[in-house]
Amino acid sequence: MSANKPHVVVLMGGWANEREVSLMSGNGVADALESRGYRVTRIDMDRQVAARIAEANPDVVFNALHGVPGEDGTVQGMLDLMGIAYTHSGLATSVIAIDKELTKQALVPKGIPMPGGRIVSRAELFERDPLPRPYVLKPVNEGSSVGVAIVTEDSNVGNPIARDAAGPWQDFEELLAEPFIKGRELTTAVIDGPQGPQALGVTELIIETGFYDYEHKYTDGQTVHVCPAQIPAEITGLCMEYAVRAHQILGCAGTSRTDFRWDDELGEAGLFVLETNTQPGMTPLSLVPEQAHYAGMDYATLVERIVEQALAGKEAGHGDN
Fold first, then answer.
1. Quick one: 261 exposed, middle or buried, by C-beta within 10 A (0-12, 13-18, 19+)?
2. pLDDT tens digits, residue range 122-170?
3. How many CA atoms lie within 13 A of 91 on its CB side?
4. What residues are annotated to the active site?
């Protein structure tokens, strides 16, 4: 371990739906930092997390949490109060980006195309469809496609949706209803650097059955990643442009990942941003490390760059991180 390297707390786990993925991300990050000579303290988040971080007294926290409360501004606010530098986006950005409706309000007026739709209550779903089928229902503030359902004419949920049918309406009082966009799943990672945010590439996610949900994201063999995506150059360029602009408009820091749906029959007009993830996964199956590798950056270098960016932001006195 080098005496000149910062002490990093890697914060992982917690109690969100994405706990196991966060543990994989966090342990991968910790291993990479240790391989580069950093002093690393691993903390599995619990209700005493503030005291445990204070006791560790790190130079910086690597936030490897996914979902609530690590991705929604809660942990960011705690670390802001403690005066400790941390990776990824700050409080205000986290609050907006995890909320799909707030994200639309931020991005669409700036020219970023996103699907239409509206917030619907559970009770309304049991009375009538909020949109013509097929449509998508998703929680307003969950990540990793947790609780997403596609309602089609053939869906085995009834018409209207039956009160006892399995689906996200059993777990959430309100859901975001959006028109279903047929076509292809694309994603672009963005990482901050000395010259500003840089898009790393475009990956197409090919799923044999269903859609790119939580199981497909984190189960080996469920999804084929094609990197770089075999798509027209103008679509690649648009994905990278929209991802960088979303990163900037939302005020993301460190790294982010923007997911797209592309109806290839409509060309450029068929490309829509679905969401921007401020805490993208760092597991062996994750897309940011994969795109970084394609761009010529190995995993340990990627992790170190994210840590360096967090420390540089702290030294520069950036308010949202």
1. buried
2. 999 999 999 999 999 988 876 545 678 999 999 889 999 999 999 999 9
3. 12
4. 18, 144, 218, 257, 259, 275, 277, 281
